[in-house]
From TrEMBL:
This is Iron complex transport system substrate-binding protein. Residues 61-336 form the Fe/B12 periplasmic-binding domain. PANTHER family: IRON(III) DICITRATE-BINDING PROTEIN, VITAMIN B12-BINDING PROTEIN. Belongs to the bacterial solute-binding protein 8 family. It comes from Isoptericola halotolerans. SUPFAM superfamilies: Helical backbone' metal receptor (SSF53807). Transmembrane segments: none annotated.
Length: 337
């Protein structure tokens, strides 16, 4: 994640929001239709980030506040329901759906859109990866302001602030179930869940008998070294078959999923592999250069196990959470695939 993105992540760790859960993680959903009018729009009521959200009828002017959320709605067949796509330059849409968004207005390149730009497209549904996108102090439209403009706000389950430390890859499945109910595309949502579970199951079967490698996940900006030890990132490594060097039980991750560490402390752990996030090719190259020159004798370096992942793919509520589980597992255990 770049400096803005890392501040983004830090902000969602301190904003006051709580994800209420179903089956241990996610949001609860109920839906009902009028008994007196079979054609009446379905009302969906759910709990999301400690808010009761009521959606009267399927939204017609939705905004994806990050390409990951835009992609999900496109894959659910909702291209004609999109009124805008935000942070569009933060991550390219996959080739197979990019054309579907060609006519969707872009409102914000890398940063979330301003309050004025978001409200200008008159959204009735705003779907965000985190609560950060609604920080009024940053000039963004707050949740209250959007609700006053008759827009429903939905935050990815793993992006609710108190969920950030304990988020799991499978939080995405709760989001898909909720979107299916909200937009009346339950079958499409269920298909995506089935496909995603199958991908995770395939990885689990492939690595079932491997000897787990000790893996540290880090983030480098300049010469500042951060360790990642909680949240969705931690779960991703576990699903990829890694023995995490850093974990939520470590005191330095008591309040936040990332912590600044010294090069000496990382070297002492002697990880077999290093996973790091990068926000573009230049950042990836700079991080590789830092790691190889700072830790020339580290097993992760000598065994050529420096594994880059896109910072966008570790955002909550993205299909990238699923795909990078396999990407990491394949690079850790190539003989298993």
């Amino acid at each position: 994640m770049n400096p803005r993105t890392f501040r983004h992540a830090a902000a969602i760790g301190t904003l006051s929001a709580t994800a209420l859960v179903i089956s241990g993680c996610g949001s609860s959903v109920t839906s009902e239709a009028s008994e007196t009018d079979a054609d009446a729009a379905t009302t969906v009521t759910l709990e999301n980030c400690d808010r009761e959200v009521v959606v009267e009828g399927a939204p017609e002017a939705a905004v994806g506040m990050h390409p990951a959320q835009t992609e999900l709605m496109l894959r659910l067949g909702l291209a004609d329901r999109l009124a805008g796509q935000a942070q569009a330059a933060a991550q390219a849409l996959p080739d197979d759906v990019a054309s579907l968004a060609a006519d969707v207005p872009v409102i914000g390149e890398v940063m979330p859109p301003s309050r004025e730009d978001l409200l200008a497209v008159e959204p009735d549904f705003v779907y965000s990866p985190t609560t950060y996108e609604f920080t009024a102090e940053q000039g963004f439209a707050s949740i209250d302001q959007l609700e006053q403009a008759d827009a429903t706000v939905y935050v990815a389950t793993g992006g609710c602030a108190e969920r950030r430390m304990t988020g799991e890859v499978t939080d995405l499945f709760d989001d898909l179930e909720n979107l299916g109910e909200i937009f009346g595309v339950q079958d499409e949502a269920a298909d995506l869940v089935v496909q995603s579970r199958a991908q995770l199951d395939e990885v689990a079967a492939a690595i079932e008998d491997v000897d787990p490698l000790r893996v540290a996940q880090v983030y480098v900006e300049g010469t500042t070294l951060q360790a990642i030890g909680a949240g969705i990132e931690y779960d991703i490594l576990g699903l990829a078959g890694a023995d995490n060097v850093y974990g939520p039980e470590d005191p330095m991750f008591a309040d936040f999923f990332a912590a600044t560490i010294t090069p000496e402390s990382l070297a002492a752990e002697e990880p077999d592999a290093l996973v790091f996030s990068a926000y573009d090719a230049e950042h990836e190259a700079a991080t590789r250069e830092y790691l190889t020159t700072t830790f020339p004798d580290l097993p992760a370096v000598t065994e050529d196990r420096l594994i880059a992942v896109s910072s966008s793919d570790v955002f909550p509520g993205t299909l990238g959470n699923i795909t990078i589980v396999r990407d990491i597992a394949e690079q850790l255990y190539p003989d298993a695939f």
